[in-house]
Automatic annotation (TrEMBL):
Protein name: tRNA-5-taurinomethyluridine 2-sulfurtransferase
SUPFAM superfamilies named among the record's database cross-references: Adenine nucleotide alpha hydrolases-like
Annotated Pfam families: tRNA_Me_trans (PF03054), tRNA_Me_trans_C (PF20258), tRNA_Me_trans_M (PF20259)
A GO term, aspect molecular function: tRNA-5-taurinomethyluridine 2-sulfurtransferase
Catalytically driven reaction(s): 5-taurinomethyluridine(34) in tRNA + S-sulfanyl-L-cysteinyl-[protein] + AH2 + ATP = 5-taurinomethyl-2-thiouridine(34) in tRNA + L-cysteinyl-[protein] + A + AMP + diphosphate + H(+)
Record function comment: Catalyzes the 2-thiolation of uridine at the wobble position (U34) of mitochondrial tRNA(Lys), tRNA(Glu) and tRNA(Gln). Required for the formation of 5-taurinomethyl-2-thiouridine (tm5s2U) of mitochondrial tRNA(Lys), tRNA(Glu), and tRNA(Gln) at the wobble position. ATP is required to activate the C2 atom of the wobble base.
InterPro entries reported for this sequence: MnmA-like, MnmA-like_C, MnmA-like_central, MnmA-like_central_sf, Rossmann-like_a/b/a_fold
Family: Belongs to the MnmA/TRMU family.
HAMAP family assigned to the protein according to its UniProt record, in alphabetical order: tRNA_thiouridyl_MnmA
Amino acid sequence: MSGGVDSAVAAARAHEAGHDVTGVHLALSRNPASYRSGARGCCTIEDSNDARRAADVIGIPFYVWDLSERFHADVVEDFVEEYAAGRTPNPCLRCNEKVKFAAVLDRALALGFDAVATGHYAQVLDGAQGPELHRSVDEGKDQSYVLGVLDARQVSHAVLPLGASRKSDVRLEAQERGLAVADKPDSHDICFISDGDTGGWLAERLAERELAHAGAIVDESGERLGEHEGSYRFTVGQRRGLRIGTPAPDGRPRYVLDIEPVSGTVTVGPRASLEVTSLSAGRPVWCGPAPAGSSLEGPGVAVQLRAHGAAHPASVTWSEDALAVALHEPAEGVAAGQAVVVYDGTRVVGSATITGTAR
C-alpha cells in the first residue's frame, strides 16, 4: 500500500473478495527527509500515514517493511550508474523487478502468503499455458509496460484488482468506501529525487565518484557547437536545455541524438535523425512460458518503448540472451537503457533492455 488511491482500493477489493489481506507499506528511503515531500502517493512519511489510515478503514492488519537498503542498491545506485554510462533508465521498472515483485514477493511467500496484490492498472488472466499479463481495460492508465519486467513465476503470484476498471471509477469507489485518499494526486516524479531536479541530483552523486565532467556538444559532422556540464543531463530525443548559441542551418530545433559518456560528447541534429527502424536489446524476460520458436510477428505484435508511449507494430526475433526488433514504422527518441516491452494483442509477451538502435 503506497499511500495512494489505487493501492487502497486494490486492498479493499481483495479483502471484500474474501482473501486474507495484510497491508504492507514499503519504507524505501534510508533518510526519509531526503526523498520527495508532500502527499504524492509513493515514498514519503505522509504516504505511510495515508496507507495506515486506509488499512484501518478497510479493517486489515498493516505493517511497514524496511527495504531501504535493497531499494538503494538495486534502484537508486542502478539509476546513477546507468546515467553515468550514457543510458536512460526507468527506476519504476527496476523497482517492480527488484523490490516489489522480488524482495517483497519472496518475503511474502516465506511468510505463508500466496500472492502480492498491487494497484497497478494491468490484468493477470488465465491462459492456455498458465497466467498471462495483459493490458488494462483503461488504456489511458495502462501500466502493463512497467510490469513487463516480471517473469512467469512473478506473474503467477501477482493479483491486480484494478485491471478491469477505469481510474475515474476507482476514485469514485474510494469516496464511497470512505477512503481519505480518494482525491489524492497521482505520483509522477522520481520518488527519490525530492525537488524534481534530476540533473542537479545526479551532479552531486557523480561528482562524488569523479564521473561528472564537462564535454562538447557537436553536430552530426563533428563540428563543435558548444559545451555542457555533464552528459548525464541529457537523454536521446531531448530538445530543451541544449543552450547552443549557433542556430541550425534550417533554423529548426536540434535534438539530442547520441551520448558518449567516456568523452562526454553529446551529438545533436535534426528531428529526422531521431528516427530508428530497428533496435537491439539484452536480458530478455518472458512474462509467461517462453514463446515457441525464435520469432514473433503478425497483425497484433507490437512493442512499447516508454511507460506512456504508443504501441509500435513490429517483428521480433530473439536468442537466449538477446532480442532484435524491426519496427514497421520509424520511432523517435529511443535511448539505450530503456525497456522494450513486447505485446501480442493485449498480452505482454516479455521485455528486454535496449542496447542499441539503427535507422
